[in-house]
Amino acid sequence: MELLNTPTVSDQDRGGPDPRGSAAARLVARDRAVVWHPYAAAGAAAGGPLFAVASASGVRLRLTDGRELIDGMSSWWAAIHGYRHPVLDAAAHAQLDTMAHVMFGGLTHEPAVRLAETLVAITPAPLAKVFLCDSGSVSVEVAIKMALQYWLGRGRPRRTRLLTVRRGYHGDTSGAMAVCDPDGGMHHLFTGLLSRHLFAPAPPCGFDEPCTDAHVAPFAALLAAHADETAAVILEPVLQGTGAMRGYHPGFLTRVRELCDEHGVLLIADEIATGFGRTGELFGCDHAGISPDIMCVGKALTGGYLTMAATLCTDEVADGVCASEAGAFMHGPTFMANPLAAAIASANLELLLGSPWRETVRRIEAELAAGLAPAAELPGVAEVRTLGAVGVIETREPVDMAVIQPRLVELGVWVRPFGRLVYTMPPYVTGTADIATLTAAMVEAVATASR
Ligand SMILES: *Cc1c(COP(=O)(O)O)cnc(C)c1O
């Protein structure tokens, strides 16, 4: 899920000077021989430094060379309670003692049923049915397939296109890729393979900037022109994540819901990044008080322990899907509803809902805003912004990863910039002092890198 960055080779990658001991260097060398990393070239050609992690606990990652880093990424939005949380560890052990996995065709189990009940209870009504799957990208594939099968079931087979906004990110599989931002994404590499969907401009109104008719007009016009062939609108509610790291006003979402209703088009909310409190409400949709027809959740669902996601839909969508010729929803991953992941997910949600998460996210938001504010004065910085427990420094030029990544590690934090975005979404259990260290390091590293 990481965007491309310019390959560069550091001393550490070449197996060159590593004053902090050779165990880490040896592991990196073995890695370079055989392992792919996200959005990276393979092996020796891979760009940027690589750090070996020995263990993680609380909000600390411990490197094999003994250094400890404050985690500013929650392992890509996921580890909201930090690492090795005793409650989540206990849930994992207890489930392992019962069963790690069993197929889901024709069988069911307590962890799956319990998790589905919780998801229906905490997501906006009338979402009522839950499809548990392996990863965020798969949940987006499932959502798209549900929308297409729904229209087959309702006798409108011409409704096959999706409409979305630019600067979105929905995953790396081909269905999801086809609705990612067409310029920043991978469309040009896969023209001919990807379905051709409809792209309105990114929401122009910032999160705090009231949304006007003029802001929504291009989206409304595109939908009106293509309503007859549009199966669904898909977007990330109130915060565009990986493609932009930028919030937009909930009023935009409200208007999108109204327009979808007007044209009889389904609305898919991709809450994979925004879900479970990150933006200050439990779900991004809650800022606007709207309900989608289909919703994807993932990332923080298992607190960062295992890969699992879910696609929820209304009874109306479920009925439409089953009215299609197949009479069933045509999807079923091997590891569907994995009991181990489901048990940890339930423990994770119980922990979250039993915590003062709203106050916590508000505190982190204020601390991120205060800590990152000095970056706004730096010459290379275009904008500093926060939304919920997400803090972003946007630079004018793409950051040099070969410079900024080692600098951040030297300063004792794990932050993984991409392109022009140096951003953090720390675990909710991060204390005030650690947020201060994290933000000061980000400001310092950006100052170094844009000098
Ligand atoms: C990360 C992400 C995905 C893809 O999830 P994976 O688990 O990486 O497949 C989809 N949509 C959004 C909004 C995401 O942030």
Automatic annotation (TrEMBL):
Pyridoxal 5'-phosphate binds at residues 136-137, 270, 333-334. Catalyzes the transfer of the alpha-amino group from S-adenosyl-L-methionine (SAM) to 7-keto-8-aminopelargonic acid (KAPA) to form 7,8-diaminopelargonic acid (DAPA). It is the only aminotransferase known to utilize SAM as an amino donor. Belongs to the class-III pyridoxal-phosphate-dependent aminotransferase family. BioA subfamily. It catalyses: (8S)-8-amino-7-oxononanoate + S-adenosyl-L-methionine = S-adenosyl-4-methylsulfanyl-2-oxobutanoate + (7R,8S)-7,8-diammoniononanoate. Homodimer. This is Adenosylmethionine-8-amino-7-oxononanoate aminotransferase. Its cofactor is pyridoxal 5'-phosphate. The modification N6-(pyridoxal phosphate)lysine is found at residue 299. The gene is bioA. InterPro entries: Aminotrans_3, Aminotrans_3_PPA_site, BioA, PyrdxlP-dep_Trfase, PyrdxlP-dep_Trfase_major, PyrdxlP-dep_Trfase_small. Keywords: Aminotransferase, Biotin biosynthesis, Cytoplasm, Pyridoxal phosphate, S-adenosyl-L-methionine, Transferase.
